[in-house]
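ok here's UvrD-like helicase C-terminal domain-containing protein, seq below lol
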Amino acid sequence: MARQLTVVRRSLRRDVLLRKAWPSVGQTCRLFSSVSSLNASTSDVSSLPGSPNIVHHSLVTTVPNLQALQRMRWLLQQPQRRVLLLTGSSSDSPVRVALEQDSPAFELERRGHGVFGVREFSQLLLRESGRERRIFDHAQLAALLLHNGMELPGASRLAASSTLQRRKGVLDLLQLFRLLEREGVTPEQYATVAIASGEQAPQELAETYRKYQELLMQHNATSWDGLVMDALELCGVQKGSVVEQEATTNDFSREVLKEYTDVVVDDVQRMTPAMATLVGHLCGQPSVQSSASFSRVLLDGDECPQTRILEQQILKTASCTGRERSVARLALETDEMADKRAKMKAFAKQILTQEADISTPAPIPLKCWNFGTSEAEERSVGAFLAQKLQSDKTTQATVLCPTHADANRITLAFKKQGLPVQMIGDQFAAATSSTGAPVHLFDEPGVNAVYSLLCALCFPSDSRHLYNVLRSDYFAFPAELLSWLMEKEHRSHVDLFPVLEAFVQSQGKSLGTSLSYREGEELELPKPVSSQLEKGLEIAESFVNIIKRLRAECHQLSAAEIVQSFLEDTGRLDALLKPSSPEQERESLALADFLRELETAQNVVKSDQVTFVAPYLQQLRETNLTSSAFVYFRLQVTHSSHLQLL
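and the structure came out like this:
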């Protein structure tokens, strides 16, 4: 509690809301823990069930190691043990990956074990207790605050008339709220410190933080950090009072942990202070016969603040449960990775300082190239690969491309340079990393047209969104024909839709009524326009009919039903449900993300009508919302003449 209030006081002293770094070791309370230099082997893993004193072991090291995995495997071999593994990261934990390779997750669960990330475990606790709430990411939270018009505190209120300034104020507020939630600070705690400060600005911030939490409760929503705070409150440690802990620890927390005999905690350094507090509380439950935590730090001698918080909470919880516990530090007696560590440090120094006179050679030679044009990049990389293949027949080269289009471009360039390459396994991979700049979800192919359709139905005179729909892949109206059609009307500010209606009703005769055209004169259309006239007339007729029907039905159908009807009318629904190409699969994934955001929008505005949903989507359009369909592609060139795309 003292540490939480210290963090609040530090935030109150700042006039500008800025990002905060992790608290230093000096700002963390010292623990009454015995630190010993022990060998982190399986001999220290077990503790007798009847032992009066249970020791929690913590290993803080600077090198990658398999101690957490070895401990888990040893415990899983004991028939009477039921192990709970909690990780600071989610699915990318090396220990989780290795365990799932040994045995599937459902098999471990069937045997009474559990493998979770801390947020994942918190979500499970809330779901099983009937207190689950929908989780909003940063972009959704920003759109929610902007849509509900939350009043900004202090000087930010003066700039509320400016949309950009108001958006900036909302984002700054979210950064402060995120800091408070990561530290586990409740609105009541924040208000107590604000009142004690005697200043007006901190009290306004505290009141805004309270309204923010009430708004989330109103929409049954929370953030990822707020999820952990909810779990802390559910377990009885949110208030920070020893008396309150004694009243609640013996019921819910004990019921949660009674099925487990051992707790293993990995990647503690990735946890937030609130996560470390929750995990420490769980490790201190009476049914836990042994517990251990593993964390990594950057340099020798560094401390892990999250490990200290975890150990401190274990001792606090143990004092409430009446079970004697202590904490001890483990240390690796031998370092088998010393040579590799030295090389990796040299490699990192080479990257950061660009120094060449390093006594220890780097394991991988590094060279950075900068190209002014894509053609220069293709020539240089192709020449480099050709030279490598000539000097070494067994050389394998990998080229990473940010997009599928770049992969095709590089492949074609290599073929022109005589490199014997070919595309193998043209499979689309929806990976979670990308080397390119993030693409907004509403700019994804297919999604952009659907988003523009909803905006066009909400604002009938908005020709910009109608144009996006007309020129999208759903209709692909010829650009030359559209330019000729709007030659006169764009000067008189006529909406696009009436022009297309007149074009369809006159069967194309309205085309070419330019300012210089006189009645009775024979109009000669350019060849590209005349060749596209018949096809364009067919597209325009289909477009006009669909828009007319949707405008008539948009007050009866929900936004999601309008999207489905639009996809059916354009014949794209089957291709999205059963994609047969990388492009279609990416579009399908992106559209699925958009439909989830559409559902969220309908819940936030408490209506499924387009007239209410579209303005919220426009707020969401201004945030950095990305799609899960981001991909990266890898080109592999070898002497055996193949190029692989992943």
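fwiw The mean pLDDT is 76. kinda neat tbh
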